[in-house]
Specification:
Elements (H helix, E strand, L loop, with lengths): L22 E5 L2 E5 L5 H7 L7 E3 L5 H4 L6 H7 L3 E5 L1 H10 L20 E5 L5 E3 L2 E10 L2 E8 L2 E4 L7 H6 L5 E5 L12 H11 L3 E5 L7 H5 L6 E3 L9
Parallel strand pairs: 2-3, 3-4, 4-5, 9-10, 10-11, 11-12
Antiparallel strand pairs: 1-2, 6-7, 7-8, 8-9
């Protein structure tokens, strides 16, 4: 956190040095990215990612969206726009925040310059297919906002949530891996606290759970030592087979 001199912000432990949240799903037919946080360029370079075949968006908050422009090199390497999958609210915010990527029709392609090419695909709460994989949207509540988690086979990714509706809980049964929001120890109006996240995990009983979207209130080594078996804190660069 800018201007903070707490133990975690000054920590030399790399697991306490966190960028904003994103996830990369590597499938047989290509890479699916979940969210484009402001550090996505650094994250993709760090992991030596050469291509992105699709991007899914959980919601439109700046820490999950505002790195979208940095995917521009991929449209050159890939020969076209990267397909984006989002609901109507996220599309509206993309069109507002990146209005320069949507020039009027009378502007010829030769005059567009090096603008992002955005191919937006509408999704709602129905399952949809990306790269031959079925993606199940998981409706979640994030304070005053409705957001989406995503399930792919036995893996579910649910960041930015403080309440999971009962119907969505049913979509999260039988998981091999659950990645779940756990912002801090204290309650928060829009995120699960550590205690609340552990209660959800205890009910769903995934084979393995990872906590993400952690603030500087969470010291990785100290909190990890207190977690129950099968639950771990995520960290930047964590890779999971699924």
């Amino acid at each position: 956190m800018i201007g903070c001199s707490c133990q975690v912000c000054l920590s030399s432990n790399p697991k306490n040095q966190r960028y904003r949240c994103a996830a990369l799903l590597q499938t047989p037919r290509g890479n699916i990215l979940i969210d484009t946080p402001p550090e996505i360029r650094l994250q993709l370079i760090r992991e030596k990612v050469q291509s992105i075949e699709a991007v899914l968006f959980t919601h439109y908050h700046a820490d999950h969206l505002h790195g979208l422009d940095d995917l521009r090199p991929l449209q050159i390497h890939g020969g076209g726009p990267v397909p984006l999958y989002c609901n109507d609210e996220v599309e509206a915010r993309i069109r507002q925040a990146f209005s320069y990527a949507f020039p009027s029709p009378e502007v010829s392609p030769s005059k567009r310059g090096y603008l992002p090419l955005l191919n937006i695909n509408h999704i709602d709460t129905d399952p949809f297919s990306v790269l031959g994989e079925e993606i199940i949207p998981i409706p979640l509540i994030h304070g005053e906002f409705k957001v989406l988690g995503f399930r792919l086979k036995g893996l579910a990714y649910c960041t930015d949530v403080n309440f999971i509706p009962p119907s969505s809980m049913e979509l999260l049964r039988g998981l091999d891996i659950l990645v779940l929001d756990a912002l801090r120890e204290r309650p928060h109006p829009a995120h699960f606290s550590l205690k609340q996240a552990l209660e959800v995990i205890a009910e769903l009983k995934p084979a393995k759970a990872y906590l993400t979207h952690m603030s500087h209130d969470i010291d990785h080594e100290e909190v990890q030592a207190r977690l129950p078996a099968g639950v771990e804190l995520a960290y930047d660069g964590l890779a999971l087979p699924f």
